[in-house]
Amino acid sequence: MSLAQKLLKIDAFTKTKDDVRIRTRSGGLITIMLLLTSLILIINEWKMFNTIQIIPSLVVDRDRNKRMNMFLDIDFLNMPCDYLYLDMMDESGEIQLDITGTENCQKTQLSDGSCNVKGNVYLNRLQGHFHFAPGKPYQNPVTGQHSHDIQEYGNKNFDHKINKISFDYDEDLTSNNDNKLIQSFFEGSINQVISEPLTGTEVLDGDSYKQYSYFLKIVPTRFEDLTKRPHPNRHKSELLLDGTSHDSKIKKVEKIQYTATTHSKPINGGRDEDHPNTLHQRGGIPGMFFVFDISSLKIINKLQYRMNWYGFILNLLSSLGGIFALYTVLDKVAYKTINYYRLKKDQ
Predict the structure, then answer these.
(1) Which of 137, 132, 121, 136 is nearest to 159 (CA)?
(2) Is this entry keyworded Endoplasmic reticulum (predicted)?
(3) Which helix (H) or strand (E) holds 103?
(4) What are the strands, taking DSSP E only, across the chain?
């Protein structure tokens, strides 16, 4: 037996002659369905291939020397600006008094009698707190205790609306076009991940002797783009300030997110209104306090495509093969069913 005859004998892919093939209308309809399904499948696979996913991971934060910038925009609804003070202190012992008197953070008396505080406050990367309190701040020369002169506090209160509180690094992005472009490149991903839980918070208690506390956990976050996508607003031939191509480097941007929990208590002490079994200790001054802590871990959000070219081709071929096998079975079932009823009708 020759080699050709041996190959012919073991052929697993037997062929049917064209003159014995039967074409049916049901087969044509199923073929159209197969083509439409395959087209939809190809489009979906292509969309999935171009889908960018965010993969988070945790690392130890080694950038401990960067100063942070906090942006504030708060309305105090029943507090004159000339009686409102913002002070800050951290665990190093550094104290900043009356920050709203600086150029970066300003108080504005509004026509409805409320006071708006808006601007930037610079923070060391240490645990600490800042607070809004009535009356001029002072330090006790004997005990070193920080306090405020509230003799003229009267019937004012700390009802407030937080228009925005956000954190960023103390960097001048406006002077660097490369940084501005990279920021805009990640804008969609940043909006998807970074949250500002205190933005939009509004408190309308009307209680003059109440202390409001917000506990913030600040988490450094980095976004890294591994897709090597070109920036839509930059020409491919344009170079960065250091002379390298924009697309030859991994684009990254440093951001800060935070979580927040709230607490309020009457400074006169007594039982909690919402939790009768809770007793508040008497003491303190009315005001709005923010206690912040810096996480020692950093979140790395890596942007990358859901699959590579090999995965795309493999998924597409396997899916098309499965669809073709399914419609082949459907065609055989339809053909035999139609023949069965046709023969039964002829009898």
Answers:
(1) 132
(2) yes
(3) none
(4) 52-60, 68-76, 84-90, 95-96, 105-109, 115-123, 128-134, 137-139, 146-148, 160-169, 202-203, 210-225, 251-266, 270-271, 279-280, 287-294, 297-305
What's residue 237's pLDDT?
Answer: 44
The rounded distance, in Å, linking the Cα atoms of 215 and 306 is 37
Show the tokens assigned to 340.
């069965």
312 and 215 housed in the same domain: no
Residue whose structure tokens are 């979906």: 44
Residues 293 and 314 in one domain: no
- For residue 260, CA distances in Å to 111, 290, 301 come to 31, 10, 21
In a domain, 297, yes or no: yes
Name residue, tokens 């050709």.
4
80: Cβ contacts below 8 Å, ≥ 6 apart: 109, 113, 115, 156
Alpha helices in the chain (DSSP H): 3-9, 25-49, 177-185, 187-193, 309-346
**Nearest Cα to Cα of residue 59 among 303, 304, 225, 300:** 300
**Residues 6 or more apart in contact with residue 192 via CB below 8 angstroms:** 54
pLDDT tens readout for residues 56-114: 888 888 877 777 888 999 999 998 888 888 888 888 878 888 887 677 888 999 888 88
**Owner of token pair 């009457």:** 266
Angle between helices 309-346 and 25-49 (to 10 degrees): 160
Instruction: Judge whether 98 and 106 are in contact, CB under 8 Å.
Output: no
| Residues 253 and 236 grouped into a single domain | yes
Alpha-carbon span 92 to 57, nearest angstrom: 30
pTM, rounded to two decimals: 0.70
- Total number of domains in the chain: 2
